[in-house]
Design goal:
The complex is a heterodimer of chains A (224) and B (384). By secondary structure, chain A is an alpha/beta fold. Chain A has nine helices and eleven strands. Chain B is of the alpha+beta class and 384 residues long. Classes of the chains: A alpha/beta (224), B alpha+beta (384). Chains A and B meet through strand 5, helix 8 and helix 9 of A and strand 8, strand 9 and strand 10 of B.
């Protein structure tokens, strides 16, 4: 019924640089993926790496770009936090496995003094500095508040103190950066963990290969 | 004139299609239509604009947000520019062709315009070609349109075609039998669409195991059906699965080379589908080549006819095809008798007649992109 499609075209796994990568290494080992030596060298200029599987290469990109590469089918598999998935809401992405790594939360934070006296039920418009304008706008629109988002790529915590805006939406893991900047967490928008993501068309057209990898990652995540 | 006008800037998502792609697209559409007509699907041609309430009735509501609207200065009523041709063909079937015998087989091809391009299809204007099979309720009808899509695309030269078969009513039927609240079902659907296993477990509560099994069942058709048949599904859902198995067997008989996958929970874009639906992919090609499935064609007086069909998205279909073979062009120097030109065109050559006398016709031929020229009544190849 299904003629096996043989192809020499390698599968591409996109992984994020930085913090998540360290937590991902044991999972990759469990799944049986051994990247070439340069992969673990932070100074290497190389961006694409071969693995012990001739049909699988790894690329290392920024976490937001993992979702984009996979959504457009430039990579077939990837590792991305559900914060990134929520922000883009790409219909071409599937997130079949919760890898249970990279745990943190996406929260609204405000200066301590403001949070103490604020009454959110009176808001019609607020200004927020964030890396997640999509999530932020949707989150506040759902309660009838228009959020004007100032897109920043980092150091959100500086914004309230310098008068750029009064509120931020950002990832929080321990909360120490917030505290150091005299900010408090006002509410949690979502709990975040990293997911294995798969390109939709690739999952349909290279079903056997990809389903195999998805199962291996699921076992590795369950075993961890 | 603004700078933009001088430089020919077009609005986002709109483009000029140039040679040779413009000719290629229309030739491919015509070949598809010919394949549909060869199986008894007669062509119809709906208008570009219609009154909004007719265009967006029934299944047409799915593209309401994608429809450009304008006011008809004559009737003072709102009109919509078609964003999808299926609702128009369904309207034709249930109005002007309501007395034509069933099952009614219609096909169509034309341009549509959408308000927003999607992530994978930034084009706002693109060509569609498709078929509708109106008033055929059996599994044989479901199988016929899938097999027709496979046959027509394969004949065009699409390689590694893959058909993903879906059961959009399954989750609804399950939710009803399991007594899930409407709000919970909506969120569950969203999580299922993303295949977000973690979220599905959270939302499905006591039925998490069942929904996980449904998620995992997706894959090659034989394995997926085996997995689905093992599940303890309520009667309505089990009926859907049996029907799917029947359709898969019929498709395999009609198109044994077809690569079939099954995804029982795929639902995005199938909000108005009432039975077996499918999406066409080609390996290595970004996006969907087309999609189709069972729906209710509804007439103006509320009469409903169970129908199925599919729409091909020509931009993606063209991406899945090899580039068109360049036409054989021959240059006819000024003064070539008209009879010579007719003879060559009858042999399949494209002729370019010289309009001025050239000292070296070969140079002129090369400048105009001709691989050959007529020299002393003989065709000679132009060498670089």
């Amino acid at each position: 019924m299904t003629s096996p499609v043989t192809s020499n075209e390698p599968l591409i796994l996109a992984v994020p640089k930085g913090r998540i990568l360290k937590e991902l290494s044991p999972l990759l080992a469990h799944v049986g993926i051994e990247p070439e030596a340069a992969f673990n060298d932070d100074d290497a200029r190389q961006l694409r790496f071969s693995t012990n599987h001739p049909g699988l290469d790894i690329i290392r990109v920024r976490s937001f770009d993992v979702a984009t590469f996979v959504a457009f089918g430039a990579a077939h598999l990837g590792v991305a936090g559900n914060d990134v998935l929520m922000e883009f809401d790409y219909p071409e992405l599937y997130a079949p496995v919760d890898l249970k790594i990279g745990g943190c939360r996406l929260s609204v934070a405000a200066p301590r003094r403001l949070a103490e006296s604020d009454d959110p039920s009176r808001w019609s418009h607020i200004r927020v500095a964030t890396k997640y304008p999509g999530i932020t706008r949707r989150h506040f629109a759902a309660r009838g508040v228009q959020a004007e988002c100032i897109k920043l790529n980092g150091a959100m915590e500086l914004a309230p103190g310098l008068g750029l805006c009064r509120r931020i939406v950002d990832l929080v893991s321990t909360g120490s950066t917030l505290k150091a900047n005299d900010l408090v967490e006002v509410e949690t928008i979502a709990e975040v963990t990293s997911r294995l993501i798969v390109n939709r068309a690739a999952l349909k057209t290279r079903s056997e290969e990809l389903t195999g990898w998805v199962e291996s990652f699921r076992e590795a995540a369950d075993a961890a | 004139m603004t700078d933009h006008a001088e430089k020919g800037l077009l609005p986002a998502g709109l483009e000029d299609v140039l040679p040779p792609l413009a000719a290629h697209e229309s030739a491919v559409v015509e070949r598809l239509i010919a394949a549909f007509q060869a199986q008894g699907y007669d062509r119809v041609k709906p208008p570009l604009l219609e009154f909004e309430e007719a265009l967006l009735a029934g299944a047409g509501a799915a593209v309401a947000g994608q429809t450009f609207r304008l006011m008809d200065p004559v009737s003072q009523r709102m009109m919509g520019l078609r964003a999808d041709m299926t609702p128009q063909v369904a309207r034709i079937a249930t109005t002007r062709l309501k007395n034509t015998p069933r099952p009614l087989r219609l096909c169509y091809g034309g341009q549509v315009l959408q308000v927003r391009g999607s992530q994978l299809r930034p084009e706002r204007q693109f060509a569609q070609a498709g078929v509708e099979l109106i008033g055929a309720t059996d599994a044989t009808g479901d199988a016929e349109v899938v097999a027709l899509a496979i046959e027509a695309l394969t004949a065009l030269g699409v390689e590694n075609l893959s058909v993903d078969l879906n059961l959009p009513p399954l989750v609804g039927a399950l939710a009803k039998d399991l007594g899930l609240a409407a709000e919970q079902v909506a969120e569950l659907r969203l999580a299922l669409d993303r295949k977000d296993a973690a979220e599905v477990s959270d939302l499905a509560g006591g039925h998490a195991g069942l929904f996980q099994e449904l998620l995992r069942a997706a894959g090659p058709a034989d394995k997926a059906l085996a997995a689905l048949e093992k599940l303890a599904l309520p009667a309505a859902a089990a009926g859907e699965v049996r029907h799917l198995a029947e359709v898969v067997a019929l498709i395999c008989a009609a198109a044994p080379q077809a690569r079939l996958t099954v995804d029982p929970v795929e639902h995005r874009g199938f909000e108005y589908q009432t039975g077996i639906s499918f999406i066409l992919f080609a390996k290595g090609v970004r996006g969907e080549l087309g999609r189709g499935g069972r729906y209710e064609a509804s007439g103006p007086n509320g009469e409903r006819e169970s129908s199925t069909g599919f729409t091909l998205f020509m931009d993606t279909v063209l991406r899945a095809l090899p580039a068109p073979a360049p036409a054989r062009r021959v240059y006819l120097p000024l003064g070539t008798p008209a009879e010579e030109g007719r003879r060559l065109r009858a042999e399949g050559w494209v002729t370019l007649a010289g309009l001025t006398a050239e000292a070296d016709p070969a140079v002129e031929a090369r400048r105009l992109g001709c691989g050959h020229m007529l020299r002393d009544g003989e065709i000679s190849e132009i060498k670089d």
